[in-house]
Amino acid sequence: MKTDDLIRGLAADTRPQRSLESGLALALAVGLAGAVALFAMILAPRSGMPGLLMEPRC
C-alpha cells in the first residue's frame, strides 16, 4: 500500500465519532435509571415518603 492510498483511505472515513463526554453522560443516565428501578422493585419506598420529604428537619 502506498502512502497516498493510505491518506486517501483515512480521509474518506469521515464517520462522526461520539465524544467521551456524551458517552459518559449516557452511561450515567442509564445507570441512574437502573438504580432507581431496582430501588423501586426491591425496597419499595414507604407510602408516606413524599410527605416526609416536605417536612423540614431541624
Report on the architecture of this protein:
By secondary structure, this protein is mostly helical. 67% of the residues lie in helices and 0% in strands. It is built from 3 helices and no strands. The chain has helices at residues 3-12, 20-42, 49-54. The termini are far apart. The mean pLDDT is 87.
Provide a compact summary of the structure:
This protein has 58 residues and is mostly helical. It has helices at residues 3-12, 20-42, 49-54. The radius of gyration is 25 Å and the shape is rod-shaped.
What secondary-structure arrangement, pairings included, does this model have?
Layout: H1 3-12, H2 20-42, H3 49-54
Task: Considering the chains and any ligands shown, give keywords for the structure.
rod-shaped, 58 residues, mainly alpha, 3 helices, 67% helix
Strand content: under 5%
Using only C-alpha atoms, the radius of gyration works out to: 25 Å
Low-confidence stretches: none
Distance between the termini: 74 Å
| Helical amount | 55-70%
The average pLDDT is 87
Order of helices and strands: HHH
What is the strand tally?
0
Number of helices: 3
The biggest beta sheet is recorded as: none
Shape estimate: rod-shaped
Structural class: mainly alpha
